Amino acid sequence: MYPIIVFSVSGLLMLFLGLSVNKKSLLPYNLLFMLVGLASNFLDWNAPGLYFNGMLEISNPIILVQWVLIFAAILVSGISSRQFDDTHAYPAEYYAIMQFALVGALIMVSFQNLLMLFVGLEILSVGLYVLTGSDKRNLRGNEAAIKYFLMGSFATGIFLFGVAMFYGATGSFDISSGNSVANNLLEGKMFFWLGMVFIFIGLLFKISAAPFHFWTADVYQGAPTVFSAFMATIVKTAVIFALFRLAAYSFNLEYENWSKFLVIIIGLSMVIGNVTAVFQTNFKRVLAFSSISQAGFMLLSLIGLGAQSYGNLGFYSLSYALATISAFGVFLVISSNTIVEGRPSENINVFDGLFSRNPDLAIILLISMLSLAGIPLTSGFWSKFFVLNDAAAKGYFWILILGVLMSAVSLYYYFNPIRASFKKTDLGKIEISSLSKYTLYVCAALTILFGIAPNILRSLF
Amino acid sequence: MHFLEIIKNLSLVQWAFYFLSILTLYGALGTILSKNPIHSVIYLVVTFFSISGIYIMLNAQFLAAVNVIVYAGAIMVLFLFVLMFLNLKEESTEMKTSPMLIAAVSTGLLLGLILIATIRKAEITRVNYNDFDPNTGLIETLGMVLYKNYMLPFELVSVLFLVAMSGAILLGKREKGESHF
Fold it and tell me: What is the CATH class of B1-88?
């Protein structure tokens, strides 16, 4: 609850700081504000309950997820160092909008009322529409922004229609009121079911699950890389936890109905995401399709709804965020060193000879790719293991087999950059700013740490 | 004959409702079918006004007024401004030949079919006229609800507007240099 207040205020302060402070010292301010937000979350610790007339729920697991979100935002800010130095960038606005978007994300993991979910979703989405188009001279960025805006607002409309149906069926926006219609006859449940389906569709669009994924690749490619990383980690985590809250508190008695159609969406996400990623040559598109398949894996914990699945989803979100941010971070450094036709190159061949140009970056890239693919001794292995375990406990064995099969397919495209980085090259060394270097070290170290001892994190939830 | 009997027995409220509904649908169809974009906007204004009429019938006067002021007033003027800036003389013919049109129409019809089939089956709880609170939907009640129960979302909407405003300024700033891929 407190970080929401902190980030609402600090976003405003950031806008004013943009007027008085020079560009390079904005990033330290941004990190300072985010650390204040991270610390302010301590004030809510061990004070579970509903706040503001049943608008927000605070409990220790929710606070941990909020930490994951803020921590991911700190890492994204870390890899953004030196990226906004040129004259066309407006870092004060970027960081301010990032902080406001974080407000939306924090609301989305702790809402108790569907109106709060809507407000949070809109704050997060509107911020991202702007950030996607923030590089105004990039035509691809313009296209991505308008595409994301149109499709995203349409999805929000669908979601809102679902909320209206939910209200019509239950007479309340409170998510726990979903249980009140459970004993109704078939006729009394019609509006509730309509609401459920439309709410699911609206939110599945936002995490780019398979039949609703068409915007993902273009938007990830067009957006500035820092904001692609933001989109891949924070939005996905916030929306999947919003879905989890709805599935666990509103729709849990209808599990038999929605799990059937969700499991098809999961299967489609895994197949489409992984198979299409194999054919991509642009690294940002590869990560976009990989994020589609990861969304499928994340949704598995909704299918395997149980006592442990909240913690498993939190573990998955953090390990996915660490791996994705380090992949984007390494890519950001290299591609801004490889200018082709006036723009940073985004082709996979930018990684050629990375090991001889900067061995540290190559190792970090290796760890992050292994973690995304789910190789043992990285946190990605355990995160996939836990969610598949949950799904198997509910008897969905075929999705387990499909998941393992698709992980095998994903090895192919995750190993492409690794293979490229061990090629011979005569290009010079790559310089990297110390802040992004340490951010990447932290990501890689935590990926290995949680890979060896996953229970450090999991026992907290 | 049965149909005529129904029409004869319609009460005044039902007449008003059917009139407004038909007007709404007429406006909506006109919006998507008219070739001139300016006409589309005018048709949309008709739709908004008749929806406001339906709001009044639902005892939601404040919502009706806001709908007229914000949608029929401000947003439609904005639409007209944009259309006049863009100076769209010829209607775009892209949609007519493409399979997109067929796909869009069939998807929309399918969705409509599912919704109608579901809602026909649904049991709709009706308002009990005897214990209906006539203050429902009035601005006083709305204000009490908004500032008491829904205080937090009401305040957070200001964050949403702030994002939208600072985003619009960010995107609208004058940019030097050329655009490129």
Answer: mainly alpha
Q: What is the mean pLDDT of residues B115-130?
A: 81
Q: What is the pLDDT of residue A241?
A: 94
Range of the domain at A233: 2-458
CB atoms within 10 A of CB B23: 17
Q: ipTM value, please give it.
A: 0.88
Mean per-residue pLDDT over chain B, rounded: 85
Say if the Cβ atoms of A194 and B179 lie within 8 Å: no
Residue A271 pLDDT:
93
| Whether B136 contacts chain A with CB within 8 A | no
In chain A, % of residues over pLDDT 70: 100
User: DSSP readout, chain B?
Assistant: -HHHHHHHT--HHHHHHHHHHHHHHHHHHHHHH-SSHHHHHHHHHHHHHHHHHHHHHTT-HHHHHHIIIIIIIIIHHHHHHHHHHHT--SPP-HHHHSHHHHHHHHHHHHHHHHHHHHHHHSPPPPP-STT--TTTTSHHHHHHIIIIITHHHHHHHHHHHHHHHHHHHHHHS---S--B-
Find, in chain B, the residue whose alpha carbon is nearest to that of A14: B166
Mean pLDDT of A344-352: 83
The verdict on a CB contact (< 8 Å) between A126 and B177 is no
A171-191: burial string, b at 16+ Cβ within 10 Å, e else: eebbbebbeebeeeeeeebbb
Residue A449 contacts residue A372 (beta carbons within 8 Å): no
Give the pLDDT score at B139.
Answer: 85
